[in-house]
Hints:
alpha/beta; Lysozyme-like; five-stranded mixed β-sheet; 5 strands
Amino acid sequence: MKTNDFIIIHHSATARDKTTLNAINKVHQKLFNYKSSLGWYVGYHYFIAGNGIIRQTRKDADYGAHCRADNMNSKAIGICLSGNFEIEQPSEKQLVSLEKIVERLKKDYNIKNDNILGHCQVLGAKTACPGKNLLSWIERY
C-alpha cells in the first residue's frame, strides 16, 4: 500500500529554462512506460518549471517512479524541479513554488521535516540529484 511519509526532491538534470514537462514525459515513457492515473508517464508527482509553475502529474496516492532506493516509490511523494542544479541555480520562482507545495504536503500528510530529502540523501541512492545548489536549500529547510 502506498503511503506519503516522505517527500523526495529531484532535479531534471537538464537546462532549467529549456526543459518542458512534455519532454520529460516522453523520456519517462521510454524508460518506465508506467502511466499515472492523471495520464502522464512522468515518474514524479509534481513538476516545477523554471518559471515556478507547478504541474501535478500523479495523484498523491499513486505509486511514484522516481526513487527505487529504500522503496521510496511506495512511501514518498516525488517533486522534480527543471534544471541541472549541479551547475545552475534554481530560480527564485521555483523555490517559492517548492516551499509552497512542500508546506501543503507536510500539512496534508503530517510529514516531518526530517523526511524531506534530496534524492541523493535516500539510503542506497547513488546519484547527485538534486544537485548541490538545490540540496543546500533542502538542508536549510
